[in-house]
Amino acid sequence: MSRLLLLALVASASILHAQSPVPVQKETDKRLPAKGGSWGLREAVVKDASLPNVLMIGDSILNGYLAAVQKALDGRANIDAWVTPTSQGDKQLPGILAAMLGAKKYAVIHFNLGLHGWQKGRIPEGQFEPLTHNMVQAMKKAAPDAKLVWATITPVTVKGDPEKLNPEIQPTIVEHNAMALKVMQEEGVAIDDLSGLMLPNLKLAAGDMFHWKTEGRDMQAKSVAEAIAKALPAK
Questions:
Q1: Which DSSP string corresponds to the chain?
Q2: Is residue 162 part of a domain?
Q3: Structural domain range at position 59
Q4: Number of folded domains in the chain?
Q5: Residue percentage of the chain with pLDDT more than 70
Q6: How confident is the model at residue 92 (pLDDT cuts 50, 70, 90)?
């Protein structure tokens, strides 16, 4: 490869990166890998541009059910996914949402941020509700016509003993779910209760504290697909 061609390729890549609304993200907590793919924005391969656009926002749990949701809604929506280790405490979040939602019109936004926000210090004490309000309001401002659906945070189990809830982390998850539910009710956001779905089905947990076996991921995908389908505009 010639030096000139190499420089041109590097320059093109730099331009594309600069145009992306989502910065490169990393998770420093090694217990929380992306699981099934890398962090980032995954845009749909559009076969029919007349279909409504849907944006799914979530962490590695989203990675687990994304393909099944896309399959379930094939022919009904073009589904993008932002797989992210962010939390409401990320000061960049409002700006990222504004850029991402300003780049494309979405009919539905299905979102959950939770498994990367329980660690001490990531969300300042007493700021969970205000920051969650800020997140929702950033979405409403950037995508005023989109229907919003919030998914509750899935349970965290004991490593190697998945039928038991994690006594250190799960109380924070319960607290965050309760506070987020309050915010969503105040903001008029629809609820997809993945926590309530999975709590009676801990036997389907993968055993690594956070993730789920195939049957569990399929249950989540069904719930998510139904919630999105309900929110899609009538034909």
A1: --HHHHHHHHHHHHHHHHH-SS-------TT---SSS-SEEE----S-TTSPEEEEEESHHHHHHHHHHHHHTTTT-EEEEEE----TT-TTHHHHHHHHHHHS--SEEEE---TTS-STTTS-TT-HHHHHHHHHHHHHHH-TTPEEEEEPPPP-EETTEEEEE-TTTHHHHHHHHHHHHHHHHHHT-EEE-HHHHHGGGGGGB-SSSS-B-HHHHHHHHHHHHHHHHHHSPP-
A2: yes
A3: 37-231
A4: 1
A5: 81
A6: confident
